[in-house]
Specification:
Shape: elongated
Helix content: over 70%
Number of helices: 10
Structural class: mainly alpha
Order of helices and strands: HHHHHHHHHH
Distance between the termini: 53 Å
Length: about 180
Amino acid sequence: MMNIRKIKIEATQVNYIYIYFFIVLILTYVLPENILQILTPLQWIVNLIADIFPSIAKLGRYSAFPQVAQIVYALCIITLPATCIFAYKISKKEINKDPDAMKKRNIPGIVVLGIICITIALLVIIFGLPGNPAKNEYYFLTDWIHNSKFGFSFNTSLVFLLFVVSLAEVVVTARLNYKK
């Protein structure tokens, strides 16, 4: 009988980024264009989240696939707390592998850059990207995001992961530095 070895995929930030992107990409391509009409409770959830996050309503107005974009973006927002906790655990695990990790880090630089990234990503998550595709403002960027499923998936993953990874790194750095 053939000896089958278990394949162990280690949870690292790079693997996490790939997995997150592919989940968003798959959802964007697999969900039917009229998903919110098929599953009306989802429409209620999206509308509730859109009241808090205007970016969802903006996606509904300008996207070539509005219902899919709204539900995928809403799912990213709903799963954001769990995603942050998971990224924090991965960051903490990677730092704990190397006992001298804190000595190698530029702590003020990580904290300042992290706070800047968190702020920018949070503004984009809440309000959406600047510009209006209807008025051709920032057309090169908004056209790709609003009319291409790959562009939408890439942008959504990038913004949410920028927030999540930055937050995880700042918290891990602050906690490990505070303990010493």
